[in-house]
Amino acid sequence: MPEASQPPRSLPERGDTPQARIRVIAICLVLHDDHLLMAEGYDSVKDEVFYRALGGEVEFGESAAEAPARELREELGRDVEIGELLGVIENRFTLEGARGHEIVFEYLATFAPGHEPQDLAPMSAVEGDAAFTARWLPLAEVLAGTHRAYPEGVEERLSAWINRR
Question: Is-contact 139 112, C-beta < 8 A?
């Protein structure tokens, strides 16, 4: 029988600490005219401009291949055709000083017929309440590491895909 003299331990309130979890996301590297469409971001803690393929969390009941197509339709208002799976990676990272952990399905994609951009101008996008810019980066510059691209190793996975073609 437990001792009655010990006070009960209080549990932290739900909002006291962020919930640590592993997210499952799917992203797509959209190729067009030897350029790659990537979301531009800025980490003020690292003072770093970076680029990441577009996509997002896989919703319950949705396949990993369906998720980035849905995300681009929501964010850009354009349809894409999801192609080859480049890889599935574990991505542990720090953004704005906060740790993150994701399992990432990384696909190649192209715009669906009739949804291709007129030019390689930056594209405005919206994720929830946040607006961001997607930029066309020359594929050769991404492969050369000229731009800080995430998730880590995207240059090597793209190079391996090019060498298999």
Answer: no
